[in-house]
Specification:
Layout (H helix, E strand, L loop, with lengths): L1 E5 L4 H18 L4 E5 L11 H10 L3 E3 L9 H5 L21 E5 L5 E8 L10 H11 L7 E7 L3 H11 L5 E5 L9 E2 L5 E3 L16 H10 L15 E8 L6 E9 L19
Parallel strand pairs: 1-2, 2-3, 5-6, 6-7, 7-9
Antiparallel strand pairs: 1-10, 4-5, 8-9, 10-11
The structure holds fe (ii) ion (2 copies).
One fe (ii) ion (FE2) binds next to loops.
Length: 278
Amino acid sequence: MRLLFCGDVVGRAGRDVLIAHMPRLRQELALDFVVANGENAAHGFGITDKICAELYGCGVDVITTGNHVWDRREIIAYIAGDPRLLRPVNLPPGTPGAGHGIYALADGRKIMVVNAMARLFMDAIDDPFAAIDRLLGAHPLGAVAAILVDFHGEATSEKASMGHFCDGRTSAVIGTHSHCPTADHRILAQGTAYMTDVGMCGDYDSVIGMRKEAAIQRFVSKMPGERLEVADGAATLCGVVVETDDATGLARRIAPLRLGGRLAPCWPEELAVPVMAK
Ligand SMILES: [Fe+2]
Ligand SMILES: [Fe+2]
């Protein structure tokens, strides 16, 4: 199975780069399933039902989130009615929406997507390791063809630990939240594809997607200062492509994908479908 996971979509610039590239990416990389983290899609803070529809419309199958999930309050009433929009699984019992979903491809293969959130330098929430353990006990690889975990967190140590904790039990563990891509994508010892952070889909001429000036001023003055506004220059699409073995559910290949904007492009040549000569 060919999966594409796209990092935190930040504002209109992030949405635009996704919409511009997704239809051809689905074709050129022969993608079976696309997941994007949408926690910053609405002007940097949260997501709306309209933006969910916009992302589904361009070819995103499932949207994950993180600490910004409730920033736009209208999503609280919406999320329970949309099984393709996930919030972190380890929020307290009774939280609206779901932290995982099992989705069927057109050919019948099933994929489970899990959204979990780390705790180091983050809000004190329920244990993500225990939550993932319970889910993988109930829905092991084999019962589903592939399992993708979006682990949303700040500390690289906690994210690496989650990768190894899931090794051999999920197809991939991909980190989000830092908005900066790491260079440590690899297949772990037992066959799980891992990347500490996939980066953001947003304007990198910024401070993690927000306009530079106000962000810098907060550090310089140590005063609240003006409101952070989303940076709206040309965005980079930051994603990672994972190819899984349908027999085992484990990863065969993992390759970063970066297109547009300020970051150096990164195209997974070895995964591209050969274009027939005309
Ligand atoms: Fe984010
Ligand atoms: Fe976040």
